[in-house]
């Protein structure tokens, strides 16, 4: 077989390709990398403990967005310390608009309400913050066997209730000095609901006038020709509107008055304003002109005022 001078044998070509592949092949060896050292962790600063209710009551109450959560936190403190829990409850009542009387009178605080000297004043404050509807709140207090009573009950049986707490809503009519302690003349009030009709939306009114006129002509033998005329006018007025019933609470006198003794002159106890008073019942005193032998002689109850609180305008039921 004849080959062209420029043609290489097939085996030579394959050999050169194999040699080229062998020459171009390379091996890569991976070495293990050194382990990376993690950056040292910076310890976080420990969180400050929550403020103590007894040491800083304002800071304790400010931690909670509403009075209910504040009272729940005070109950949790009570499990660790009854004194600390009570301090937390006082902060909730005195520094927030606390109206949760059922939580206050629940079993969790029953022992504290019985033995703590300031417990009755805290209850009176809550009653005032709930609107000062004393008659309704007293009924609930008596259901819970809280020894706070109405002025009417004390006046009916003065010997039974002497020395006990009474709760009343009253208006200061006068303030005088009697010896070393000033005395205020109290007129008891109660809240009464009054119904009113308030207009809602647009109203309509109308005014209609109707006039009718006419005349009549004729002739008679006696009078001859003549005419008779006249007119009649009618007018009608009216209006219409849509109303909705509203119920407002007003303070009204009960007819009962009392003398209240203060520990000292108090410029914040203003005349002609309603307050919720917590007082100790000291008995009754004959008014001027009465005698001890006269059972029908007018008598007025005498109280020692323990605390007073301004009632909120909105009543909580």
Automatic annotation (TrEMBL):
Residues 43-58, 207-225 have a biased composition (Low complexity). Residues 28-58, 207-254 are annotated as: Disordered. PROSITE patterns: PROKAR_LIPOPROTEIN. This is Lipoprotein.
């Amino acid at each position: 077989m004849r080959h062209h001078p420029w043609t290489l044998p097939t085996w030579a070509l394959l050999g050169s390709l194999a040699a080229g592949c062998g020459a171009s092949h390379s091996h890569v060896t991976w070495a293990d990398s050194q382990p990376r050292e993690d950056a040292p962790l910076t310890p976080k600063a420990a969180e400050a403990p929550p403020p103590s209710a007894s040491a800083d009551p304002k800071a304790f109450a400010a931690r909670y967005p509403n009075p209910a959560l504040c009272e729940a936190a005070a109950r949790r403190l009570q499990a660790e310390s009854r004194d600390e829990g009570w301090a937390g409850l006082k902060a909730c009542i005195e520094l927030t608009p606390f109206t949760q009387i059922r939580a206050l009178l629940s079993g969790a605080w029953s022992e504290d309400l019985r033995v703590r000297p300031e417990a009755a004043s805290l209850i009176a404050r809550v009653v005032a913050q709930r609107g000062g509807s004393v008659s309704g709140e007293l009924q609930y207090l008596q259901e819970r066997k809280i020894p706070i009573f109405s002025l009417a009950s004390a006046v009916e049986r003065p010997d039974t209730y002497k020395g006990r707490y009474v709760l009343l809503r009253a208006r200061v009519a006068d303030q005088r000095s009697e010896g070393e302690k000033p005395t205020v003349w109290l007129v008891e009030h109660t809240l009464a609901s009054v119904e009113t009709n308030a207009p809602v939306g647009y109203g309509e009114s109308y005014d209609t006038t109707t006039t009718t006129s006419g005349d009549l002509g004729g002739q008679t033998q006696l009078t001859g020709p003549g005419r008779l005329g006249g007119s009649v006018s009618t007018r009608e007025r009216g209006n219409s509107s849509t109303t909705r019933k509203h119920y407002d609470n007003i303070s009204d006198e009960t007819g009962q008055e009392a003398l209240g003794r203060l520990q000292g002159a108090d410029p914040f106890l203003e005349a002609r304003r309603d307050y919720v008073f917590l007082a100790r019942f000291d008995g009754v005193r004959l008014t001027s002109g009465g005698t001890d032998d006269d059972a029908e002689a007018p008598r007025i109850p005498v109280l020692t005022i323990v605390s007073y609180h301004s009632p909120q305008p909105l009543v909580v039921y």
